[in-house]
Amino acid sequence: MCCVGGVGSYSDTGKSGACGTMLEEETDQTYENVLAEIQSFELPIEATLRSVYDDQPNAHKKFMEKLDACIRNHDKEIEKMCNFHHQGFVDAITELLKVRTDAEKLKVQVTDTNRRFQDAGKEVIVHTEDIIRCRIQQRNITTVVEKLQLCLPVLEMYSKLKEQMSAKRYYSALKTMEQLENVYFPWVSQYRFCQLMIENLPKLREDIKEISMSDLKDFLESIRKHSDKIGETAMKQAQHQKTFSVSLQKQNKMKFGKNMYINHDRIPEERNETVLKHSLEEEDENEEEVLTVQDLVDFSPVYRCLHIYSVLGDEETFENYYRKQRKKQARLVLQPQSNMHETVDGYRRYFTQIVGFFVVEDHILHVTQGLVTRAYTDELWNMALSKIIAVLRAHSSYCTDPDLVLELKNLIVIFADTLQGYGFPVNRLFDLLFEIRDQYNETLLKKWAGVFRDIFEEDNYSPIPIVNEEEYKIVISKFPFQDLDLEKQSFPKKFPMSQSVPHIYIQVKEFIYASLKFSESLHRSSTEIDDMLRKSTNLLLTRTLSSCLLNLIRKPHIGLTELVQIIINTTHLEQACKYLEDFITNITNISQETVHTTRLYGLSTFKDARHAAEGEIYTKLNQKIDEFVQLADYDWTMSEPDGRASGYLMDLINFLRSIFQVFTHLPGKVAQTACMSACQHLSTSLMQMLLDSELKQISMGAVQQFNLDVIQCELFASSEPVPGFQGDTLQLAFIDLRQLLDLFMVWDWSTYLADYGQPASKYLRVNPNTALTLLEKMKDTSKKNNIFAQFRKNDRDKQKLIETVVKQLRSLVNERSSQRSL
Length: 822
What we know:
Blueprint: H1 2-16, H2 21-40, H3 45-53, H4 59-166, H5 170-184, H6 192-255, E1 260-262, E2 265-267, H7 269-286, H8 293-296, H9 300-311, H10 315-334, H11 344-367, H12 374-396, H13 402-421, H14 427-458, E3 464-466, H15 469-478, H16 484-488, E4 493-495, H17 500-519, H18 526-554, H19 560-575, H20 577-588, H21 602-630, H22 647-662, H23 668-690, H24 700-718, H25 735-746, H26 749-755, H27 768-778, H28 789-794, H29 796-821
Antiparallel strand pairs: 1-2, 3-4
């Protein structure tokens, strides 16, 4: 463009005539350069031409002139060149025309050769196409082989996955899935079958979850059904271990030669040896391969399920489901049968199921991580323990058989020891046993109440006869009786007590043994056991035996002879209480001198029973006297007495003599009190007979006959039917009757009225009201009665005296009434 611009500048300068020839030469040179550029074809012609036309006006005209000049020069040069080469060209054409014939021939030959070559090449082409096709196939096969070699591991792993699924190796299948996803699938992710596999894996995982959960459900159902077997095995092992320990302890005690005696009673060493031998034999018989919970239950489903859910990252769901289902099962296990309290098997099934449940939980706790925790098991156990205690407290209250309660206690102890061995706290169960112990004592008391009743029913209430030394030793071996006088007597002889005494003594010891059975294995000290034994024995004596004795004493068919024997029996039982205390001491090895040792209350028990028997003797004796008195048949209008005492009274006195003869075995005060009570009651009954309101008239003959009966009573009292009375003490029981009858027999009213109220009065015991009542019965108050007719005929003054005495007696009665009111 600079050149073109230069051309434009040169034209303008030429018009002005400033530069002349030099500028014209520069313009020509510029055009020459442009033409050289056009001819060279190295630069784009458009830019060159644009530089010519865009530089100066009218420059293109000059350029065209220059271009035409250049063309003419080239034409001249071409013409020169053609002229120079024209002859050679003509020669060449001539030569070419000469070879035309040869060319035609050659053409024919080439055509024929080509034809023949084409015919021969067709077969080659066919084979070549086959080769090409085979090469393509070979290449494809090679590619397929390479791809298959890439896919085969994936297919093999997937086939392995299917085999693991079929073999129920789900945990391995999940691991295989992870390998497929992380390692193999990225190699072949572009293939459709891989996409299908990838799409199928989530479904397989869900299938595995469902199958493993189904296995877990089957496992939970299985352990629910086998919980009792698991618990039974665990409790047997705990019991076996405990029995072995107890046997060793007993064996160690026997090595020290510890023998226990209670006077003539001995807890035989042979008995201990027998128990020990029996225990060891049972251990030998039961000695077999120790089974564990793994031997009884296949835990692989729960392990698999836990691992599967862990791999799937859903472990929390599995834990929640497992714990929820186990809590449901716990509630079912803790729900007892309604009739569980009827048999020990019901309690045993209940305990074995609970033990089996918690043994499984303990095993799961120790062999898995996180599925169950100690906090979870403790919470579950506390919930279960509260329910267990409530159930046992409710159902044990229905137990009335002490043997069943004892077996329940043994089951609770084994149950507690078993679970304690697995680390569960069981102190509350032992506290419950103390409640059940009280109930056990109550059932024992009820049972022994029946035993005592049977003993009392079977007793003949007569002294035990002994005909030889052997029988004597048998009785002495049963009851601690010591009497030198009896020992010196020759056979046959009699023990003072009846057969019920040794039987009761034996049964009290059996009760102590039974009570001791419950105290065993309670993990209590000897002092506590001693205290429990003494308290339960006190209850037996003060409640059960005392109640049985009182009921026996109050039975209608128990007569005076039986009551006397009961008093004698209670005396010997009271003396035997110290031997019972020694018996308990030798069992527990706790001295009676210990500060807190409870004493037996048998002394008060038997004293109370004896007092009740004494009172019943007094009552029955009075009843018997009343029966005889009811047989009295006085003729109250008789004019003269029969001259002898009434038959009923003589029979009564004979009866009293025989009864008081039996009373010689009673303590002196008891016999004296009974005799005094009988005489006082007889005196009162005779007095009431005279003063009976239904009796309207009494003749002097009847009074004299009545006096004969009272004289017999006084003679009986003076005969000292029971030794120990001082002077006329017993006769004073009839003093009221005696003074009353003497007053009427002597008719000494003047003395009575004159000395009334004086301490030295002859008729001090005669009540004016009593005298008035009897005197009015003797007055002539009825026309049908003329008792005093002869007196009125013979002595009218006496009739007036009677009226006067009646008036004075009424006056005395009124005075006494006024004084009492004041």
